[in-house]
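A favour, since you know our C-alpha cells better than I do. What I am after is a single protein written out in full by you. Could you add the entry underneath, on a fresh line?


***
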Amino acid sequence: MSYKIAVLKGDGIGPDVVDCTISVLNKVAAENGTVFEYTEGLIGGIAIDETGVPLPGRTIEICKKSDAVLLGAVGGAVGGSKWDNPDGNLRPEAGLLGIRKELNLFANLRPAVIYTALKDASPLKPSIVGDGIDILVVRELTGGIYFGEKFHNDEYAYDQMKYSVDEVDRITRVAFEAAMKRSKKVTSVEKANVLDVSRLWRKVVLEVAKDYPEVELEHMYVDNAAMQLIKDPHQFDVIVTGNMFGDILSDEAAMITGSIGMLASASLSEGTMGLYEPVHGSAPDIAGRDIANPIATILSAAMMLKYSLNMPEAADSIEAAVNKVLDEGYRTADIASDGDKIVGTVHMGELIKKYL
C-alpha cells in the first residue's frame, strides 16, 4: 500500500521535529510493507520569505493531491519577528487559517493527556491529577468568529460569530463518534445564556444526541468550563465547542498537562483527509540546536496513521513506544526533572524507533 503525505515543515523547530518524525514513519512503513511518498511544501514565514505569501498556491495543490498533511510549526518569536505585519493576511499564521479553509478541515481534535511518568510536570496538585488525565477537545475549526464578517475603522470594529445548523451538526457528530470509542460522555461548551449563536448550537447538539443514546451529554457555559478544567478535569471525556472557545479551552487543557511538547493534534475534513501538527509553537530560539521535543509531532503522526491512513495498529505501536521511552526515564530538556536521562531531538526519535 502506498500513501501520499504532504510535508509542511514550516518555521523555527518545525524542520527539526518533522525530520525526526519522518524517520519514525519510515520505520513504520518498512515494518508494515507500506510506502509513504513525501512531497514538501512551504507555509508560514518561510513561505513569505520565498514567495511573498504565507500560503503559496503550490502548497495548496500539493496538499489536495495528498492523503494527509504533516505540519511542523508556523510563525516567529513571541513578541515580535521579521514577519510581523499590520495586514493579517500577510502574517505567517494566515497560512494556517488558509490551509484549514482550503482543505475544509472543520474538526480539530486536541488530546490533553497527562502521562503517568510525567504527572509531576502538571501545575495541578497531585490530588487533582490522580493517576492521570485524558481529555479530548473537539473544536470546530472553519466557522465562528474567526471566519465571520469583519470590519474596523478609527471608531469601532466588529467580528461576526456565525454558525449554521449543518456546521454544528457535523462537528457534534465527530465528538459523539469519538466519545463512543472512549468513555461515552460529551460536554458541549457554549454561552447560551447570552449568545443567540450558542442557543442554536445547543438546539442542534440536543438533536444529534438523540442518535447516540449510549452517550451521556451535558451542557456547560464556557466560563464555567474554564474553571472546571482546573478544579476537576476528571469530569471531562470529550469536549465539543466552537472555534474561539475551543481555541482557548484546548490551550488551557494543554497547559494543565504541564508538557505542551507532548501534545498532538489532528484537523479533519469529511472523509479521511486530515492535517496533523503538534500543539506547540515554532520556538525559533532553539531551532537547529537538537534540543526540541519531537514527541508531539510523532504522536501527531500516530493520529495520522489512525484517522487518515487506516493503520490503527501502527498508531498504537507509536504510542506504546513513546510510553516505553518515558517509562525508561528518557526526556528532552523541556520535560526533564532531576535524575532523568536527557536526550536531544534526534536521539529521542531513535529511541522511539527502537521500541516500535
